[in-house]
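Reviewer comment 2.1 asked that we show a complete input and output for one of the modelled complexes. We chose the zinc ion case, as it is the one discussed in the main text.
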Amino acid sequence: MFGLLLFGAGTVWLGILMLKELVDTPPFDDPSRCPACRHDALLRVQREGIASAAPLLHCRHCNQAFWRWQGSLIRDTGRPLF
Ligand SMILES: [Zn+2]
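Response of the prediction step:
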């Protein structure tokens, strides 16, 4: 349980860091290779009505979700997808 809390705090911290750097970062092309399973199966998740600064990519192969940030992918934890 404690480890889970630590992990959650780290995720929030990462998010804050990412938000700080967002302002003057130009957009990149979406990567298609999943960093978790190495399959070329990433798809951007479209969220209607939400202007997202950090696009969410979903892997069709291992079912993981990742936030794309400055050319890197950060795993999105605890989010139910499809
Ligand atoms: Zn994958």
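The pocket of zinc ion is lined by residues 34, 36-37, 39, 41, 59, 61-62, 64 (CB under 6 Å). We note this here for comparison with the apo prediction described in Section 3.2.
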